[in-house]
Amino acid sequence: MTYKVIITGATGMIGKGVLLECLEHAAIEKVCVVNRTAMGMEHPKLEECMLDDFMQPETIGDKLCGYDACFFCLGVSSLGMQPEQYYQITFELTKKFADLLYELNPEMVFNYVSGTGTDSSESGPIRWARVKGKTENYILGKGFRATWMFRPGMVIPQKGIRAKTGWYNLLYDFTRPFFPLFERSARVTTTSRLGLAMIHTLRAPLEKRHLENQDINSLADLM
């Protein structure tokens, strides 16, 4: 069986990793990436849906029907961002996508990239963690066929992927000689493993809904 998937955030480090694994994997028949700007990639499986305003995903609703999964990798850092803006991008934007995709494809799998430290109680002292927790809880309660919350911690970029944040790249360049050592740790994952884990949720029965790096690695290596 093959699957058609939607990916958001494919221009970011994690989203790009998920995209590359989907394009290479035999189980993925088609990939629709939703972006503001063209990626400049060509592949027989790849279709780009351009969206100028991510708060209005309904404007491309006709292009998002008939998919088996959404790998929602779109996200921003709370550093230097006003709380209201972070809330709008993290919760309100994600909610709009989830609402639309549930209306169009209620039997799809919806995977959301959150982050380690996310606060499911929505009542902790850290604002970003509460907002992420609220977003996770909304998706989990939406009614999709299945949902998984990916909470990566340290992620090592592979296959030439670069982060969009400049200082991340400086950090990765400095620590690159140690990547082989890091990759042997169950507490560290990679962009490739994260992508494989996303794909494997389409076929692997999992009871756990919040996946940290150790869970992501185990799922990536499952098949």
Task: Kindly summarize this structure in a few lines.
With 223 residues, the chain is an alpha/beta fold. The protein has helices spanning 13-24, 83-104, 127-140, 166-175, 179-182, 191-200, 213-220; strands spanning 3-8, 28-35, 46-50, 69-72, 109-113, 146-150, 154-156, 188-190, 210-211.
Task: Give an overview of the whole structure.
- The structure is a single chain.
- The chain has a single domain, classed as NAD(P)-binding Rossmann-like Domain (Rossmann fold, 3-Layer(aba) Sandwich).
- The protein has seven helices and nine strands.
- The strands form two sheets. It has a seven-stranded parallel sheet with strand order 3-2-1-4-5-6-9, sandwiched between helices.
- The chain starts with a strand and ends with a helix.
- The model has no long low-confidence stretch (mean pLDDT 92).
Q: What characterizes the major β-sheet?
A: 7 strands, parallel
What would CATH call the class? Alpha Beta
Placed side by side, the strands forming the largest sheet appear as 3-2-1-4-5-6-9
Instruction: State the end-to-end CA separation.
Output: 15 Å
Number of strands: 9
Low-confidence stretches: none
Keywords:
223 residues, alpha/beta, Rossmann fold, seven-stranded parallel beta sheet, two-stranded parallel ribbon, 9 strands, 36% helix, globular
What is the element layout, followed by pairings?
Blueprint: E1 3-8, H1 13-24, E2 28-35, E3 46-50, E4 69-72, H2 83-104, E5 109-113, H3 127-140, E6 146-150, E7 154-156, H4 166-175, H5 179-182, E8 188-190, H6 191-200, E9 210-211, H7 213-220
